[in-house]
């Protein structure tokens, strides 16, 4: 994503962050993003829906699903364990491939590279 587009999105309050996996790492990043100097819309999903709902209430985020995050978020943070990363990517890949816009995937899984 170009810097000009990023700055424009900040000004228009249209940045969307999605967190798939809201455990220790994903939850910590979501909490940090909630304190950002610029406003963002944060979507949160976890295999334990109660966990993502509780975090959404705590930080003002939006409880969501993996598929919904893959469809609409500009920045998608993948906070799932390495052993389930492939299954999760297989689940969201069709939704990512349908998109015409640019998005950024960020993996927090040790030893896994996304290309």
What would you note in describing this structure?
With 115 residues, this protein is α/β, with parallel strands linked by helices. It has a single domain, classed as Rossmann fold. Helices cover 47% and strands 17% of the residues. It has five helices and five strands. A five-stranded parallel β-sheet has the order 3-2-1-4-5, sandwiched between helices. β1, α2 and β2 form a beta-alpha-beta unit. α4 packs across α5. The protein is globular and about 30 Å long. The two termini are 16 Å apart. The model has no long low-confidence stretch (mean pLDDT 88).
CATH topology: Rossmann fold
Please report which band the strand proportion falls in: under 5%, 5-15%, 15-25%, 25-35%, 35-45% or over 45%: 15-25%
* Major sheet strand order: 3-2-1-4-5
CATH architecture verdict? 3-Layer(aba) Sandwich
Rough outline: globular
**Superfamily (CATH H level) name:** NAD(P)-binding Rossmann-like Domain
Please count the helical segments.
5
In which range does the helix fraction lie?
A: 40-55%
How would you spell out the order of helices and strands? HEHEHEHEHE
Distance between the termini: 16 Å
Would you state the CATH class?
Alpha Beta
Report the strand count.
Answer: 5
Q: Major β-sheet, in short? A: 5 strands, parallel
Task: Indicate the mean pLDDT.
Answer: 88
Low-pLDDT parts are: none
Computed structural class: alpha/beta
**Rg, Å, rounded:** 13 Å
Q: What's the number of structural domains?
A: 1
């Amino acid at each position: 994503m170009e810097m000009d587009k990023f700055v424009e999105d900040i000004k228009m309050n249209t940045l969307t962050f999605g967190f798939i996996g809201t455990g220790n790492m994903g939850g910590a990043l979501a909490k940090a993003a909630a304190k950002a100097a610029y406003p963002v819309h944060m979507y949160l999903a976890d295999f334990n829906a109660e966990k993502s709902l509780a975090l959404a209430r705590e930080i003002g985020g939006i409880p969501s699903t993996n598929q919904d995050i893959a469809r609409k978020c500009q920045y998608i943070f993948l906070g799932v364990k390495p052993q389930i990363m492939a299954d999760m990517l297989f689940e969201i890949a069709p939704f990512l491939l349908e998109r015409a816009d640019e998005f950024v995937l960020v993996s927090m899984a040790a030893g896994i590279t996304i290309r």
